[in-house]
Prior knowledge:
Elements: E1 3-8, H1 16-21, H2 30-39, E2 44-50, H3 56-64, E3 69-73, H4 79-92, E4 98-101, H5 116-141, E5 149-153, H6 169-188, E6 193-198, H7 205-213, H8 227-240, E7 249-252, E8 261-263
Parallel strand pairs: 1-2, 1-4, 2-3, 4-5, 5-6, 6-7
Antiparallel strand pairs: 7-8
The chain binds NADP nicotinamide-adenine-dinucleotide phosphate.
NADP nicotinamide-adenine-dinucleotide phosphate is lined by residues 8, 10-12, 29-31, 50-51, 75-76, 102-105, 125, 153, 155, 198-199, 201-202, 204-207.
Amino acid sequence: MPTVYLSKFSFSNPEPHLRAEHTQDTCRGLGFGLVQALAANPDNIIFAGARNPSSKELAAFAAAHPEQVIPIALDSADVPLNKAAAKLIEEKVGKLDVVIANAGMGKVSTMSDIEIPEFVETFKVNVLGPLVLFQNTQQLLRKASSTGKFVTISSVQGSVSNMIPGPSGAYGASKAAVNSVTIKIQEENPDLIVFPMCPGFVATEGASKFTKDQGAPREIMNSAAPISVAAANVLKHISEAVKVDQPKTLWTARGTSLGKEVPF
Ligand SMILES: NC(=O)c1ccc[n+]([C@@H]2O[C@H](COP(=O)([O-])OP(=O)(O)OC[C@H]3O[C@@H](n4cnc5c(N)ncnc54)[C@H](OP(=O)(O)O)[C@@H]3O)[C@@H](O)[C@H]2O)c1
């Protein structure tokens, strides 16, 4: 019986300095690393969610893994698209073993200056996105071969008790909110394993732009983990995860500068 995953694929455009430093994999977001790592195991079937599932790059990757990688249209918090994706998965394989809510965004601004539409968009993608995904995949997770797992990719920036200084309040607030939503989903669905986790500091386009916009020196990206390392850590943690009734800390990937658990 194959293990069936649903994860965001993510093709971001690389910043030139990242492209030069990590030719293998930093030209993609974490979602690509996850799908790439999963596709290396022939026992996995991966539904790769993307806003543009017919993009050339995704089509090429799926064509190279014809039995395993199925592109699927998915956009954060889009209820009809999420419903349609679940219906397609139901018809094709009838279950989901693991769902990874990976899509995320963040704009750099102070609380005084952030434009309200930007704040709302951040919450839509980072909080409502995982919630809508859960609502539409929960029944498929209940048909998993063992206990279904729903994982939100969060961030240490969401820690309230250990708040990271800097103008990233909207992003941090959205990650604090999605931690809360995720833990509530676990409380309400004890038959599933549900948790948020942080991938650590990862050399993606999103992280590069975020740190640059915060005024951090470009060299800081040198301490970020390559996507392949972070993806392997995330998947290892997901495969080893067992149910915790009341999570007290946010697990963050090892092999990076932030490899530890942090309090919510
Ligand atoms: N990289 C890090 O250091 C780091 C650290 C902590 C947490 N994280 C979290 O890890 C996850 C992946 O981040 P990443 O670094 O891989 O970022 P990324 O390179 O910017 O990729 C972000 C992902 O979110 C999707 N996305 C962005 N804006 C969206 C929108 N408005 N609607 C729908 N989808 C949208 C992107 O889709 P497209 O490909 O279609 O653009 C892409 O799949 C995020 O949840 C992020 O918060 C990352």
